[in-house]
Amino acid sequence: MPFRRSLYSWIAVAFFVAGCATHPEPPADTIRKEMAALRDAIDKAVKDPERAEQARQQSVAMETDLLALEQAVYQSSIELRALNARPDASRADFDAALDKFDGTRANLRQRIVDQHLALVASTTADEWKALFPYESRAMLASVRIPQR
After folding, report:
1. pLDDT tens per residue, range 64-123
2. Angle CA 57–60–61, to nearest 5
């Protein structure tokens, strides 16, 4: 029994140390990696060359916009932190910063949704089933606030 407790303790310590020692991948790197994997998956899953080319073009455009969205999220977090650190910042300053971010985000969001729909339209249900995990991970990374 004491051996088992000791073993469990060591395993818990190993997981704790491993968790503390890892550094999350920056969102932009995740987006690039997942979109490259998506293009590789398109080459394997989409058999029709014309539809595959359309899907690749949409994925390139989507990658550009996802990276722009990630940068907008990061930049807005910096601006809001800077405003929050200023004791003289007014409600109007915060409203202006949030309105600017909302406008940028809405524009990018619409373009990303349009690209997503075009990408889905260029694939069959079975092809899309093989592709969506890559797009999903890239989209999630674009709105994650990095700890830079």
Report:
1. 999 999 999 889 989 999 999 999 999 999 999 999 999 999 999 999 999 999 999 999
2. 90
Element of type H or E holding 56: helix 49-85
- Residue 38 main-chain phi, psi, to 5 deg: -60, -45
User: How do residues 109-136 score in pLDDT, each as one tens digit?
Assistant: 999 999 999 999 999 999 999 999 999 9
Question: Phi-psi bin for 45: left (phi > 0), alpha (psi -120 to 50), beta?
Answer: alpha
Instruction: Give CA–CA dist 33/51, Å, rounded.
Output: 22
Q: What is the pTM of this model?
A: 0.78
113-146 CB burial, b ≥16 within 10 A, e <16: eebeeebbebbeeebbebbbebbebbbebbeeeb
What is the dihedral angle through the alpha carbons of 7, 9, 15, 17, rounded to the nearest 10 degrees?
Answer: -120
The answer to whether the beta carbons of residues 123 and 55 sit under 8 Å apart is yes
